Amino acid sequence: MKRAKSPQLLFKNKVWLTFCNLGFHKMNKDENFHMPYTPDHSVTQRFDVFAADDETGIFIICESTEEHNKISDFNERLTSIGEIRGKLIAELKKSFPTKKIKPKFILATKNFNLSTSDKDLLSKYCIYHFDEDALQYYEELSQHLGFAARYQLLGNLFEGEKIQELDNITTAIEGQMGGHTYYSFSIEPEKLLKLSYVLHRNNVNKDSMPAYQRIIKKSRLNQVKDFVNKGGFFPNSIIINIDTKSKGLTFDRASLQGQNSISRIGLLHLPKKYKSLYIIDGQHRLYGYADSKFSKTNSIPVVAFLDLKKADQVRLFMEINENQKAVSKNLQNTLNSDLLWDSAVYNERRKAVNLKIAQQLGEDRNSRLFDRIIIGENNKTDTCCITIDTIKNGIDKSNFLSTFSKKNDLVEKGTFDKDDNESTYQILYPFLLMYLNYIAEQSSNEWNKGDNDNGILSINVGIYSLIKISNDIINYLISKNIRIHDIPLDDLLTEMKLYLEPIILFLNNLDYNEKKELRTSYGGGGKTKYWRKLQCVINDKYPDFSPPGLQEYIENDKKIYNQESFNMIRDIESFFKVDFENKLKAFYGERWFIEGVPKSVYDTASKLAIEKTYTSKEGDVQAWDCLYLIHYREIAIHGSNWKNLFEKSYTRPGEEKIKGGKKDKTKWIQRLSTIRNKNFHEYSVTKEDHDFLVTLEQWLLKENL
């Protein structure tokens, strides 16, 4: 019987295996790896993982915990390594005397939220942080790319550092396009891979600008590799951006140039640095060559732009992909937080702030929504189930941010808007972070469920409603002359707690059926129902809290109009059945049900009649008895029926001269059908709909008595 490995050992093994799969062929044989750092090798430093290839040596320490999001305290271990870092590097280079080994130290963690002091130590001692998101990313990438995934890792570890012994000069054509300088050249895939980096949209690249690429698909990659190995090739260019930090590139123009050409030929000196070329389009073509037999002997065409702004990179990516595989709505949202940040349209700038807040709430380890928001093209799970759109819509339908006309004129000043994006973000994000964290702490059992076990809080409808109710409370505090920006955030939360307590009590004590009712109220109406319910809970305890529309909603929600409305609809439907039949029979004679009724209505009613007859114990069911309310409208506007039979008696008083003809004059039947189709056990007929039914009853029934 085997003894189960500890979670800590399993994590170390996973880190070891990931680096092995990335192509590091020199690895420690067990967890007791000690690196000497004194001349006589008498003193050593233990590392959990050591990984090396012909160019790189990596020392890794692993720290994991089963406690989610635990605040770290690695001061002692980081300091002990940092103080002997130089000696360790010197000993590493002695171990590889014929190689120019580049050293790197990594702290790999699982479930830790790094403390500020630990972050400072990592920066001080040049130690790279590798969390569970990074581990998962490189693990998946190695499964797709094999050893070629190592280039992504090296790009992150050694960003901006020089690549030794790389031939970086290539023949190129320089030109101008769309106001941008570009270079066209061909290059061996292996060489391009070393310089390139793909900004995949996930947590690993959240600090890179701008991360816009989809994750590589293994199936598509294998198709490319098989195609290339069989002699296939791609004549279209890979599109890249060369990031020189505005320093420019050396381009040695050839002495011989075309007399009338606006382009120039010469020798282009590519940067000899890791992560200096960003792939905008063509990642599958490039990586498809990586493990092929032609990676060193073929050259692939490249169009390289120079120092594109991040918005231009995102825009180019979206334009290229517009007519290919559609960019998902969630990925579009994450891209737009970069693309629209400096937009000339003020409403678009606010949209960018909104989207950045939504994204950061899911990526910030200090947020209780960390790893619960679907970022980019990350997969949905039972706990990671909230869309960026949900948070965006919640903020959109609040008045935290200012709104503007098409001419950029101010329409309404936002309660948290400071007129520029960065300043607005710096006050609104901390507020929402603090507020949502407080709710999560006070209702932790419910919050932790996500979409599991009938969870009601950390799901789309719950988060939307929490954002909306926070807006209501802020507006209420402002109406009571509380200057929300003149007090610290902690004090603002204290002011809000009085009104949050009833909500927390309500959410923590919902029974199964109450939760189910809120969870299964789909669409915009479902979100409104949840949000209004939270308003009602506060209003019950503090009647002075009455946001716009709440009293009308409360009145409508009492179902006081349901029974009377149901009776009116039933009577109107009975009137239709008799009156339509009489008019059709009088005009068409015996064939009235064929000549006076659209074929689609005839077929539907006849089919339903046959089914009911088959199951009925009371004899034949007639097709005319199987019409839906909306069918009467279709009959009324069929052919010349409206003009000949129905226009005079079925045009509502006051609508005789409206434009749009018979379709517009019968829209009232459409509305009647919509009300009829509501589930009266759950739906509360509004006063507006009730009044509409009363006018129909007065007009159709009482005038025809």
Structural class of the helices, strands and pairings?
alpha/beta
Query: Proportion of β residues?
Result: 5-15%
Shape: globular
Overall residue-averaged pLDDT value:
89
Q: Give the N-to-C terminal Cα separation.
A: 89 Å
Number of helical regions: 28
Number of strands: 21
Protein name: DGQHR domain-containing protein
Organism: Listeria monocytogenes
InterPro entries: DGQHR-contain_dom (IPR017601), DNA_S_mod_DndB (IPR017642)
At a glance:
With 705 residues, the protein is of the alpha/beta class.
Can you walk through the features of this model?
With 705 residues, the chain is an alpha/beta fold. The chain has 4 domains: 7-130, Trna Endonuclease, Chain: A, domain 1, CATH 3.40.1350.10; 169-327, no CATH class; 331-554, no CATH class; 562-704, no CATH class. An 8-stranded mixed β-sheet has the order 12-16-13-17-11-10-15-14. Strands 1-4-5-7-9 form a 5-stranded mixed β-sheet. The chain has a two-stranded antiparallel sheet with strand order 2-3.
Task: Draw up the topology in text.
Layout lengths: L6 H15 L4 E2 L5 E4 L7 E4 L1 E4 L3 E9 L5 E2 L3 H8 L2 H11 L6 E9 L1 E2 L2 H9 L2 E4 L1 H14 L4 H8 L11 E9 L2 E8 L1 H7 E2 L20 H12 L8 E5 L7 E4 L10 E6 L7 E5 L1 H8 L9 E7 L3 H12 L7 H11 L6 H18 L9 E2 L11 E2 H9 L6 E2 L5 E3 L8 H22 L1 H6 L10 H20 L9 H20 L3 H8 L3 H19 L8 H8 L4 H27 L3 H4 L3 H17 L13 H8 L4 H10 L10 H5 L1 H10 L10 H15 L4
Helix pairs in contact: 1-5, 2-4, 7-9, 8-9, 10-11, 11-12, 12-13, 12-14, 13-16, 14-17, 16-19, 17-19, 21-28, 24-27
